[in-house]
Amino acid sequence: MFSKFKKPDESKPALAAVPKTAAPGLSAGKPVTKSLMRALPAKVAEAAPMDKEKKRKERLSEIKLELHKALLDNLNLAALEKATEADLRQEINAISTETLEQMGIVLNREERQTLNQDLYFEVTGLGPLETLLKDDSVNDILVNGPQQIFVERAGKLQLTDVTFKDEKHLLRIIDKIVSAVGRRVDESNPYVDARLADGSRFNAMVPPVAVDGSLVSIRKFKKDKLAIDDLVRFGAFTEEMAAYLQAAVATRLNVIVSGGTGSGKTTTLNALSSFIDNSERILTIEDTAELQLQQTHVGRMESRPPNVEGKGAVTQRDCLRNALRMRPDRIIVGETRGEEVIDMLQAMNTGHDGSMTTIHANSARDGVSRLENMVAMAGIEMPIKAVRSQIASAVNLIVQASRLQDGSRRMVSITEITGMEGDVISMQEVFRYQRVGLTPDNKIIGHFTATGVRSHFSERFRLWGYDLPTSIFEPITG
Ligand SMILES: Nc1ncnc2c1ncn2[C@@H]1O[C@H](COP(=O)(O)OP(=O)(O)OP(=O)(O)O)[C@@H](O)[C@H]1O
Ligand SMILES: [Mg+2]
Of 266, 273, 336, 408, which is best to mutate to test ligand 1, by the most ligand atoms within 8 angstroms of its C-beta? Predict the structure, then answer.
């Protein structure tokens, strides 16, 4: 029956080997079946009419779990990769019919169809991760070995009840994802970055480097990226700050969004890009293409790691150098994290103003140090003062994003770089988030305020037609 896809390995008792006359659930070597059979009759018997629908759903999901385990035990997964959809559906149908028969479970036609469809997705999709990927309230999915899957919702991490059958099952899903993009992950090459078919960012690390089972991190791709209005509505920043940022982007200041991991840097960068005029030619460079610009004239580039022979790498720096020959009006680098910093600073300093990027840092000052370090790490031997003056003349604005302890994401500071004073880069904070306390349920109390300084770029804004009212720079008192 399972001719094409059945495992050659007969060490595990196949379901077909169980005598059909055996009492349901008592078949040896199938604890999964047993657990289901213990639970099922009781549930069916107890079901009150109003609970019927709920119970039916529960029962179906339990059956699905059992059947999925049966499928994994019985299908030859290697052959499955090459199977046609029709073959696979037929095979799943056959296995599920036989398994249901052995379990003594009778389903109606519709239930059977739903079940088989779900199983098909289980086998062809990303298994237990599918439901989490489809859940729009989930931002991140974090797998710590087969039995522990966390998700991040609204800035908070939560443990889910979703699990993989075992490490082998988890590895199979990882392998499926990375092989789809022509990568490999194994003991000799234990970590990998990839992009899922839906655009989500994916990273995996497998044992033995991952000690307690494979580690997977997924940043879900949001089809509808948060726009400026959404961010204002969610309290990430104020309308006044948005007006200021609009002036900054439209008048081509070079902007860096700084922040910790998952603080909302990419989201902020994406939202800021909406202030770029539609007539401009924008080139974006990313390690994993996440940005979704609304403009018409956008060229997107994605760097590429080396292949298994260690060849064919295209770095962000390669993309950036090439981008400079592609007549860009603006260059947006998703995240500056290495040697591309040199070309980024040079581009910002030599006519490609209005460029934007993000960096991983905890404050504007820290962001500048990060840039200095990246320059040093890139092997450029330049006196620190020269590096700083490059940075000071390249970068105009640092926007600091932060995920606060209550899960809220806010733009905690907007800082202008005003030049050099001696050896030191001078900067002034224009807006900040002022924390004042904590509610009993640990929500942060605070408000945004201007710091009272006059923007270094006021005159520029005015000349470009962005005459911001002075009131937006007045601090909130009291
Ligand atoms: N102000 C906000 N309010 C609510 N959700 C937000 C906000 N900003 C970002 N998010 C959500 O938080 C998640 C992380 O955001 P984002 O990818 O922008 O962070 P990041 O700082 O670029 O992360 P990484 O360091 O991993 O690149 C996303 O799912 C995004 O939709
Ligand atoms: Mg990011």
Answer: 266
Q: What residues contact residue 168 under an 8 Å CB cut-off, 6+ apart?
A: none
Q: Smallest Cα–Cα separation from 271: which of 288, 246, 234, 252?
A: 246
The CB of 265 under 6 Å from ligand 1? The reply is: yes
The Å distance, Cα 443 to ligand 2 centre, comes to 25
Distances (CA, A) of 272 to 10, 292, 294, 328, 416: 59, 11, 11, 18, 16
* 8 A C-beta contact, residue 303 and residue 316: yes
Task: Identify the CA nearest to 338 among candidates 376, 390, 309.
Answer: 376
Amino acid at the residue 272: L
Q: Is 28 exposed, middle or buried (0-12, 13-18, 19+ CB in 10 A)?
A: exposed
The pLDDT value recorded for residue 449 is: 97
CA distances for 409 relative to 51, 138, 231, 236, 237, angstroms? 40, 15, 9, 6, 9
Long-range Cβ pairs for the range 357-360 (8 Å, 24+): 357/256, 357/257, 357/269, 357/332, 357/333, 358/256, 358/257, 358/258, 358/259, 358/265, 358/266, 358/268, 358/269, 358/334, 359/256, 359/257, 359/258, 359/335, 360/258, 360/259, 360/260, 360/261, 360/265, 360/335
Rounded Cα gap, residues 230 and 142, in angstroms = 26
Round to whole Å and give the CA distance between 268 and 358: 9
Predicted local distance difference test score (pLDDT) of residue 43: 38
- C-alpha–C-alpha distance, residues 284 and 292, integer Å: 10
* Regions in the chain scoring below 50 on pLDDT: 1-6, 8-48
Give the tokens for residue 393: 């003349």
Question: Rounded to a whole number, what is the largest CA-CA distance in the chain?
Answer: 90
Per the document, the length of the chain is 478
Q: Report the alpha-carbon distance of residue 286 to residue 81 in Å, rounded.
A: 30
Query: Given this model, what pLDDT does residue 275 score?
Result: 96
pTM beyond cutoff 0.70: yes
- Cβ(252) – ligand 1 distance below 6 Å: no
Each residue of 390-430: pLDDT tens digit? Answer: 999 999 999 999 999 999 999 999 999 999 999 999 999 99
Q: How far is the CA of 5 from the centre of ligand 2 (A)?
A: 41
CA 376 to centroid of ligand 1, rounded, Å: 29
What is the C-alpha to C-alpha distance for residues 186 and 207, in angstroms, rounded to an integer?
Answer: 8
| Any ligand 1 atom below 6 A from CB of 336 | no
Alpha-carbon radius of gyration of the chain? 28
